[in-house]
Amino acid sequence: MDGTPDVFGSPYRLLSAVVVPRPIAWVSSRGPRGENLAPFSFFNVVAIDPPVVMFAPVGVGDDRKDTPENVLATEAFVVNVVTDDLVEAMNETAATLGPDESEFERAGVTAVDATAVDAPRVAEAHVSLECTLYDSMEVGGSTLVFGEVVHAHVDDDLLVDGKVDVTRLDATGRLAGGYYATTRDRFHLERPP
Ligand SMILES: Cc1cc2nc3c(=O)[nH]c(=O)nc-3n(C[C@H](O)[C@H](O)[C@H](O)COP(=O)(O)O)c2cc1C
Question: Which of 4, 109, 171, 173 could form an S-S bond across to 181 if both were Cys, CB 3.0 to 4.6 Å?
């Protein structure tokens, strides 16, 4: 079968099922109603100099989700890396909560102040990237949020000789719908010269 993306259900159904596995930014931010935490799998690193990451919440203008709304106001956010031990807590924070409910409480994780930016971070996360707003732009119905990583927290036991050893980080990836992937099934490939 081939055709336009709509033929496969919808562009979302097609792209979310074939651009896999996607890393998950578990984004913490601060807003007028308190501290906020939500996952976004339309997420990646987009530049190294300066170090910039990007996530893409659906919604623009008055329809923006709380996370981009907070980030555009405070110019700060934290990307907490989702690992196997935190995946259920992460999932809880995708729920739509009332204005007085806390995603941190619902997920059973602890908000602590970030070191360098005006946002909370997840104390239980093994890696947290503190970001200042680098830029934002609308692409159709989504708001792309770019953040410059200005400070990082990494658990000591992920480090070998002062560098992160990827085989010690059980990062979780998103597939489609309720399916996720671990990064435990690894193999090594030499790059050609
Ligand atoms: C694993 C996972 C990944 C998600 N990725 C996205 C995404 O990339 N973009 C998006 O708009 N919503 C995404 N969502 C849904 C948001 O997390 C959800 O709408 C959340 O309630 C937004 O919270 P906020 O309004 O506090 O910002 C995802 C949900 C899950 C569980």
Answer: 173
